[in-house]
Amino acid sequence: MSFEILDAAALTEVVQLAEKSDPYAWPLPQWRSSLKDDWVLAKREQGVLVGLLVLKPNLYETELLYLLVAPKARRQGLAAELLDKSLVHSEALNAERMLLEVRASNQPAIALYKGRGFVQEGKRKNYYPLLADDKTAASKGYEDALLLTHWFI
Ligand SMILES: CC(C)(COP(=O)(O)OP(=O)(O)OC[C@H]1O[C@@H](n2cnc3c(N)ncnc32)[C@H](O)[C@@H]1OP(=O)(O)O)[C@@H](O)C(=O)NCCC(=O)NCCS
Questions:
Q1: DSSP-derived secondary structure letter, 26
Q2: Among 103, 102, 107, which residue's Cα sits nearest to residue 131?
Q3: Using a 6 Å cutoff on CB, does residue 8 contact ligand 1?
Q4: How far away, in angstroms, is 64 Cα from ligand 1 center?
Q5: Percent of the chain with pLDDT strictly greater than 70
Q6: 103 Cα nearest atom in ligand 1
Q7: Helix pair 107-115, 78-92: axis angle to 10 deg
Q8: Domains and their CATH numbers in the chain
């Protein structure tokens, strides 16, 4: 297994991994722009992409925009490895903090982030649209976003 920084040449592979693994996968134009502008760290297993993380560097902070591990490669510490590398990269950029948003229902991701020192600093009500299957009258088709921060200072 090896880590690498992806660029625009990986567009097709990235879109394929995301579309087959994530019901909330980004649309192609968003990947095109992230592969051009952001720090996209990925891991391969026998040449095939199995996980990736997108980090946007801003002036005093970095923002985790996307994290995905292929279903077959989950629960082996891969997301934790990607996240740890993004924390090291953020510190090297002199970021004061790393920010992210996560669906309030995404317990695996929330456990991962809290285990890595992220704390909840806010909540955006009814921020994320739900999939058609999840739309109950109670949810009104949206769920909250939790705003998490990892401080370096
Ligand atoms: C969330 C996700 C990235 C985790 O990837 P992963 O490689 O399986 O995670 P890891 O094996 O590195 O697990 C690290 C920690 O995360 C938490 N975790 C991961 N999967 C979990 C699960 N199914 N249930 C509970 N906790 C979980 C645990 O705290 C785990 O630590 P532990 O193994 O010591 O218990 C993966 O499930 C995924 O790609 N989900 C779909 C996309 C997504 O939700 N991305 C995050 C958007 S903010």
A1: P
A2: 103
A3: no
A4: 15
A5: 95
A6: 48
A7: 50
A8: 2-151 (3.40.630.30)
